[in-house]
């Protein structure tokens, strides 16, 4: 698959492991070294992964046109950067291609998701995790120039999930977004890291 992501991390390793012809846009040059080293340690080839260093709103418009099967937007989450990422990626995504929007509960991402959900050119698919929304591109074309009454953005919400998952996600997110919750996650990560080093 021809793939692209804004932001880098474990997702980049997953794209490499899947053998994707993959482009990554991140402003942090150190991430490239860390991700390539992690791939080496895991025995994953990163030969087909290309990094473009810089903020995505500057880098994406300058990339050569390449028809994409799948794109992940997970770089800058402040408004309007997820929207700018989508704007640059949309014409490059093949009709039938998939757009993954991570941290979809955040208003700058949610506003985009709401607008795409109201468009005939895009179709919301079931989310692949409590925070990652999936949109299929169904056709080329711009979104309407006039606001047609679509409710866009608003407060943080998991409204793209089915109701039972929505309740769990909202509860879990509230717990793990507190200082105490983040502390617990940090302890669990350090414990897992120790276990990994002992067995690895
Ligand atoms: C949430 S992390 C990405 C996590 C990654 N997708 C994963 O699964 O591990 C956010 C990433 O966005 C990058 N980033 C921050 N500002 C950015 C920008 N303006 N353009 C592109 N990437 C940006 C950060 O350097 C970081 O790699």
Strand content: 15-25%
Backbone shape: globular
Q: Helix coverage percent of residues?
A: 40-55%
Q: CATH homologous superfamily of the largest domain?
A: Vaccinia Virus protein VP39
Separation of the first and last Cα atoms:
31 Å
What's the total number of strands? 7
Going across the major beta sheet, what is the strand order?
Answer: 3-2-1-4-5-7-6
Summed over residues and divided by their number, the pLDDT gives a mean of 92
**Main pleated-sheet profile:** 7 strands, mixed
Secondary-structure element order, as H and E? Answer: EHEHEHEHEHEEHH
CATH class of the largest domain: Alpha Beta
Low-confidence stretches: none
> What is the CATH architecture term of the largest domain?
3-Layer(aba) Sandwich
Instruction: Determine Rg (CA atoms, Å).
Output: 18 Å
Give the distinct bound molecules: S-adenosylmethionine
How many domains? Answer: 2
Give a brief outline of the structure:
The protein is an alpha/beta fold and 200 residues long. It contains 7 helices and 7 strands.
Describe what this molecule looks like in 3D.
The protein folds into 2 domains: 152 residues, Vaccinia Virus protein VP39 (Rossmann fold); 39 residues. Helices cover 40% and strands 22% of the residues. It is α/β, with parallel strands linked by helices and 200 residues long. The protein is globular. The protein has 7 helices and 7 strands; from the N terminus they run E-H-E-H-E-H-E-H-E-H-E-E-H-H. The protein binds S-adenosylmethionine (SAM). The site of S-adenosylmethionine has 17 residues, from helix 1 and strand 2. S-adenosylmethionine binds next to helix 1 and strand 2.
């Amino acid at each position: 698959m021809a793939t692209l992501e804004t932001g880098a991390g474990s997702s980049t390793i997953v794209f490499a492991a899947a053998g994707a012809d993959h482009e990554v846009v991140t402003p942090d040059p150190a991430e490239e070294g860390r991700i390539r080293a992690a791939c080496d340690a895991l025995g994953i080839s990163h030969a087909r992964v290309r990094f473009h260093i810089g903020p995505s709103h500057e880098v994406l418009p300058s990339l050569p046109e390449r028809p994409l099967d799948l794109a992940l937007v997970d770089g800058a989450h402040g408004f309007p950067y997820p929207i700018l990422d989508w704007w640059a990626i949309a014409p490059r995504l093949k009709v039938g291609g998939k757009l993954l929007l991570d941290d979809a509960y955040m208003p700058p991402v949610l506003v985009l998701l709401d607008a795409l959900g109201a468009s005939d050119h895009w179709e919301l698919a079931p989310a692949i995790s409590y925070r990652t929304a999936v949109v299929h591109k169904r056709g080329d074309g711009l979104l309407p120039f006039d606001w047609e009454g679509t409710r866009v953005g608003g407060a943080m919400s998991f409204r793209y999930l089915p109701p039972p998952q929505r309740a769990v996600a909202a509860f879990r997110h509230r717990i793990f977004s507190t200082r105490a919750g983040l502390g617990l996650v940090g302890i669990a990560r350090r414990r897992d890291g120790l276990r990994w080093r002992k067995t690895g």
